[in-house]
């Protein structure tokens, strides 16, 4: 049963309309180049419109994989498709795997999370719904539905598995980058607990420049490895897959300005010498 007739899941005409608009999405996050405000993470500020970090993160990230699963369940039946190719099922599994970690596990294992402004929260939900609709519709009905169509997609089995390897390299590396950031927060918690035992006043927010792993070379390797992850996904789908290409480009345009602004924050907070020699997020830059 459709949640919104012809929109969720989307008819082919509406899918093509959504996808066309999705192609132009980079215009919106590019506005971040002209503003310093971003109500999340290090740059979050006190506001009556803030949502507690864990709750906000969970509720803004889960709609993505939940929407994709719903589309994969309902759209094939509407088009008389009884069995999806194994490639479609694997790719859907990769998408869900990423977001099970990102949306569910991530906020649970974080030692702490800053509040998220409702504007950022709402924008993230719209991103998730639109992206999942485009990718889910392509995988469920509007992309290649037979092995012959997969061959016509110019995606060989070898290319598919190369894409899987790239995806997993990005996924695993992204996890370890996150773990390094979590360790910094754990150290803060341990200091807080020691001060509490000694009867001393607790410290306020504490930040430091990560130095281990890929953080030795760049300030935002977790962004870079997520781009690697979705590059692998695009390689696996075949380079003519517009939804996968859009996802990668839209993430790039959304995250690059935040990384550059974040590098300015690090410079102001710790001084240029502390981050000297580190790339921001793109190797060599």
Question: If you had to describe this structure to a student in words, what would you say it looks like?
Answer:
32% of the residues are buried. This protein has helices spanning 12-23, 53-78, 86-109, 118-142, 147-152, 157-197, 221-237, 242-270, 272-275; strands at residues 50-51, 116-117. By secondary structure, it is an all-alpha fold. It has one domain. 65% of the residues lie in helices and 1% in strands. Helix 7 runs antiparallel to helix 8 (242-270). The mean pLDDT is 93. It has a two-stranded antiparallel ribbon.
Q: What is the terminal-to-terminal distance?
A: 49 Å
What class, by secondary structure content? mainly alpha
Nearest-integer average pLDDT: 93
Q: What is the CA-based Rg, rounded?
A: 21 Å
Shape: globular
Low-pLDDT parts are none
The SSE order reads: HEHHEHHHHHH
Instruction: Provide a count of the helices.
Output: 9
What is the number of domains? 1
Sheet with the most strands: spatial strand order: 1-2
Portion of residues within helices: 55-70%
Please state roughly what percent of the residues sit in beta strands, choosing from under 5%, 5-15%, 15-25%, 25-35%, 35-45% or over 45%. under 5%
Number of strands: 2
Largest sheet: 2 strands, antiparallel
């Amino acid at each position: 049963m459709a949640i919104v007739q012809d929109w969720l899941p989307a008819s082919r005409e509406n899918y093509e309309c959504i996808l066309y608009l999705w192609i132009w999405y980079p215009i919106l996050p590019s506005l971040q180049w002209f503003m310093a405000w971003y109500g999340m993470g290090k740059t979050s500020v006190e506001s009556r419109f803030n949502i507690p970090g864990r709750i906000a993160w969970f509720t803004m990230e889960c709609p993505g994989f939940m929407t994709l699963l719903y589309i994969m369940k309902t759209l094939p039946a509407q088009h008389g498709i009884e069995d999806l190719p194994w490639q479609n099922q694997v790719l859907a599994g990769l998408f869900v795997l990423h977001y099970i970690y990102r949306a569910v596990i991530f906020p649970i294992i974080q030692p702490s999370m800053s509040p998220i402004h409702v504007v950022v929260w709402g924008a993230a939900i719209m991103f998730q719904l639109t992206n999942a609709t485009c990718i889910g519709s392509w995988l469920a009905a509007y992309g290649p539905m037979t092995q012959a169509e997969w061959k016509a997609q110019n995606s060989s089995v070898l290319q598919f598995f190369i894409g899987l390897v790239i995806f997993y390299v990005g996924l695993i590396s992204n996890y370890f980058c996150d773990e390094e950031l979590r360790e910094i927060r754990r150290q803060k918690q341990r200091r807080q607990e020691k001060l509490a035992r000694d009867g001393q006043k607790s410290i306020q927010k504490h930040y430091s420049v990560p130095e281990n792993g890929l953080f030795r070379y760049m300030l935002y390797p977790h962004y870079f490895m997520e781009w690697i992850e979705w590059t692998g996904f695009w390689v696996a789908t075949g380079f003519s897959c517009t939804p996968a290409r859009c996802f990668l480009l839209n993430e790039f345009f959304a995250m690059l300005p935040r990384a550059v602004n974040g590098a300015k924050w690090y410079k102001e907070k710790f001084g240029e010498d502390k981050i000297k020699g580190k790339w921001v997020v793109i190797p060599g830059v």
